[in-house]
Amino acid sequence: MRLLLSGYKQTDLGIFNEKDPRLKVIKMAIRRDLLSLLDEGLEWLVFTGNLGFEYWVLEEALQLKEDYGLQLACILPFKTHGQNWSEQNQEKLAKFKSLDFVKVVYPHYENPSQFRVYHQFLIDHTDGAYLFYDSENETNLKYLYEKLQNQDDYFLKILRFDDLNDIAENFSNLGG
Q: Tell me, what's the pLDDT at 169?
């Protein structure tokens, strides 16, 4: 199974530092979901090179890669993707650019229709998606989420805030 990844960016969540306590819960949820997906036949994760959820999935996936034979791809929308990011974020982008398969779709941004074509290409070349999205907290992810919901025979795994609350509650009950 080949899964497209997308989700909230760190700025959407107000997470600006790797020591934010919410990250521990998010990464616990990601690891739980990845292990479950690997049991269901996950072979490839397809990233789009965004910070936040995608990068946190990448961190967890890199830890699981060897033991599970997981393959990692990054298909960037533009060659210029991330060029204005800080040095710290450039290092994160470099991790995306060092995966098993890396391609760039367009040399640079020209118009909004490029995103529609790009997203359709990603959908056409994956079997499903793993999203961190909650319709009660809309961002521009709404458009991709709606498009994915309308795909026939397309697997969709959604991580929602309620899932994170459940994990946080269980974690605190265990004395974490």
A: 86
What letter represents residue 66's amino acid?
E
User: pLDDT tens digits, residue range 59-75?
Assistant: 999 999 999 999 999 99
Strands 71-78, 128-132: pairing is unpaired
Question: What is the edge-to-edge ordering of all strands in the sheet holding 44-47?
Answer: 101-106, 71-78, 44-47, 2-7, 128-132, 155-159
What single DSSP character describes residue 3? E
* Residues 14 and 137 sit within 8 Å (Cβ to Cβ): no
Domains with residue ranges and CATH for the chain: 2-171 (3.40.50.450)
Q: How many CB atoms lie within 10 A of CB 117?
A: 12
How far is 109 from 151, CA to CA, in rounded Å? 26
